[in-house]
Amino acid sequence: MIGMMYLFLTAMLAINVSNEVLNAFTIIDNGLAKTIQTFEDKNESKYSEFENALDANPTKVQDSWDKANIIKSESNELSDLIDSLKHRIVKSADGIEYDMDNIESKDNLDVPAEIMIVLGQGERLRKSIDTYRNLVLSQIAEKDSTLRRAILKTLNTEKPKKQTKGDPNYSWESIQFSHTPLIGAITLLSKIQTDIRSTESDIVSYLFNQIEAESFKFNKLRAEVFSPSNYILKGDTYQAQVFLAAIDTTQNPKIVVDRRGAITTFKDGRGIYSAKADQVGEVKWGGIITYKSPSGIETPYEFESSYIVAEPNVVVSATKMNVFYVGVDNPVSVSAPGFSSDRVRATMNNGRLIKKGDAYVARPKVAFKNAKVLVEAQFEDGWRPLRTVDFRVKPIPDPIAKVADLSGGKIKKNLLMAQTGVDAVMDNFDFDLKFKITAFTVSTLVKGFTVDQESRSDMFSTEQLRMFRNLKRSQKVYIEDIRAVGPDGVTRNLPTISFRIE
Q1: Which CATH number fits domain 312-395: 1.25.40.10, 2.60.40.10, 2.60.120.580, 2.30.42.10?
Q2: What pLDDT score does 16 carry?
Q3: Which CATH number fits domain 400-501: 2.40.50, 2.60.40, 1.10.10, 1.10.12?
Q4: pTM of the model
Q5: Distance between start and end Cα atoms, the chain
Q6: Residue 357 pLDDT > 50, yes or no?
Q7: Which residues form the Gliding motility-associated protein GldM first immunoglobulin-like domain (predicted)?
Q8: pLDDT tens sequence across 120-134
């Protein structure tokens, strides 16, 4: 859009249109300056996220962090070069006491061509852009062709192809700066700066996502053993899952059990260990789990566990997961083999345990504080405690904001126009929870300016739909300041989602 406006204004200058046309260039350049600042702020935020990830896992993040710093340095250097060219052009035209905010020689056609073409600064800029583009592309895998094509298009410095055999052999710089008024040249250089900062944003996000896809969300690795129950009946089969907590499930660790040798059965990165229960009493077992770290070093972790083979005893397990969530009903089954359901009861601290038929519903109160479930059975002489079971208590996770079941990326304009609003979706969460979007803002660039439209519900407002109708191909639109309320009554601030129009 900015490029089309630039061409239009240049054509109007050729027929000696008034200074109002020149002032239009100033308006566009001011809008570009705001866009550049927006990208710079966004990039600084991403670099800050990078640093946090580096502190949590230096071994894994260091290489990507070093690459991001190179991109940052080269982006700043290229942006500074463009700034220096702007100042040089204006100073040459207006004199030593020039003012970049109040350019006098806006219609000067000679100085831009002299500096950028005759003195070779345009060629210097083109080569710098080429070097920067090649650096960026070297960080992107060949399989990520969409991003590569976008960068090639954004930072294109190819000279125009001849339409006929007799056409002049124009260079990129001659097309950009020959017969271009001074204010037009300044605006064009601002547009290139915008492209540089936009590309920097894309590649830094790409580098961060590459390490984020497999980054650990914790600062300690520990071998864990999980079993649906540590109490089984004689003659049954004991089964346990042996895994490394928060491990990358795309690779299986090597697990060796002292009594059985290497484990060969895995499910979601967890080794499945089975042993026949052939005698009553406590059975201790353990072994070594070896995990290959991101740096390629194999690190062993010892683990041990035990289970009880017994006559009828108690079994307590959450029916959906091994944690309770605040703000929802958590179904829990409580049973004690050898006792009928009317002779078994359960209570819980940090909340309430409500009996519904033969099952229970747990309603925990305080997140991040364990809840203890006490199970009692009725003997001939009264009620006796059988076992206390600990459950972790967590808050309900945040939902994901989506439009047309998409959380960002490319979207067709007609698909976007067909949507009624923004949805809050609970991905990969076992409970059937409903979150309600209560507000969000849609923003995009219109003629170089950022335009915001707010909705106070989950529906697109009339103004937002009108904004969608005016979107152009490849234009970005952002949905931000998204707020949602769940069954716990807590307002959540959800991350911004962005779309590019196909």
Answers
A1: 2.60.40.10
A2: 47
A3: 2.60.40
A4: 0.44
A5: 15
A6: yes
A7: 214-311
A8: 998 999 999 999 999
